[in-house]
Fold:
Amino acid sequence: MTLVVGATGMVGIEICRLLSAAGQPIRALVRATSAPDKVDKLKAMGATVILGDLRDAGSLKAACHGVQAVVTTASAMPFAYEAGSNTPQSTDEDGYLSLVTIALDAGVQRFVYTSFPPLAPTFPLQDAKRAVEKALHASGLVYTILQPTYFAEIWLSPAGGFDYPNRRATIYGTGDNAISWVSFLDVAQFAAASVNNPKARNATFELGGPHGVSPSDVVRIFERVAGKAFDVTHVPVEALRAQLAGASDPMQKSYAGLMLGYASHTSIEMADTLKIFPLRLRSVDEYAKSVMPQ
Structure:
């Protein structure tokens, strides 16, 4: 039995689909406030749904009972954030640190944790990810840490400032640095494949797409697919630093830190990882063609 924490999220529900298709029994942790249609979708896959929350240790103990593996994707950011109650501190750090301890006590044999690559700025979400990774290293659990870079479906969408329906794009920094944009569908593939892969034991993998593409080149790809020019706005690094320094809300601070990381991020070499996980990675070109009317 595999417990998926964050099962109604974008990545989590795809992990459940992949595990179910492979014939693996799934227990899906969902909150009481989870969208009913997503919960119904999980049930239709054959998942056993259990109510719980990373902030509720009692529910985590019940969820971990009798499971062999835990796969995690849940986060307070960006969609579940609630100031003062569902934050990087309460969920992404305290909640996960509790889950690591509970999973160890429950005899869980594999813990797959979704994080992101280390970024230069300090901000609450990154602090939480690094704390959980450190705890996993010291826990005695058999772990796999996945560190996907910037999700194409988030950062190359209106939610990330890339308003392709209206042919407007906001670029953070110069736009000349190559970023290994990754599809959430591919991240889900890596997570599902980590559960039983002996070569993923006690290993950390940075995850990106098939090759690095600069934000400026991403705009050109979308312009070519759409056959129309985009209106591009650049946010200078100095403005991003000021935004990070001036933010007081944990979500605002974390988002500013992620934008600043975007401005200096470099591409990830995937050749060695793909020897362990022989998966086909989706490209920015494919993503652009899937979302742009042609």
